[in-house]
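Notes from hallway chat w/ T.B., transcribed later so I don't forget. T.B. wanted the structure written out for a chain they're using in a teaching module, and asked if we could keep both sequence and structure tokens in one place. Agreed to drop them here.
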Amino acid sequence: MEKTNKTITYLGNLGNFSYILHVINNKIKKRMKKTIQLLLLFLAMSLTGFAQITTSTISGVVKNQKGEIVQGATIHATHEPTGTNYYSSTNKSGVFVIPAVRVGGPYTIHASSIGFKKGELKEINTSLGLTENVVFVLIEESVQLKEVVVSANKTGIFSKEKTGAAQQFGRRE
């Protein structure tokens, strides 16, 4: 009988040990769960911090007097208080976009294209995170283009004997 009692006592100790392991395992799982939840919370908070918008956008369309789109027009916007310049051009639909401009204003915006008088809009103000839409109507004008003359002189810079890269060294090198 002594052997049986020792075995039962031993199994009883194993039962207590497994119970202790079970309790410890549950505590670790709860702490890990809380830690992971906190990490996810901090990650979400940091991502929203990066997602803050601090600029605005200016966009619009450029048309002629007949309401037809003007492709390839050059757009120049100037933030008057700081003198910051922004540039864009119209696409094949006559639309332009100037992203990430300073909030506020006023802006002076010019639109120009060959065959049209330069258009100007003044006192344009932008709002945080919003797009300010403008419409330019350019007036056609006849433009007499001047002759362009391209000339060149033959110099001895290029030669048949020199076909690769060259480097000159002075006294210091």
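Follow-up for T.B.: Residues 155 and 161 are 15 Å apart (CA to CA). Might be a good example for the class.
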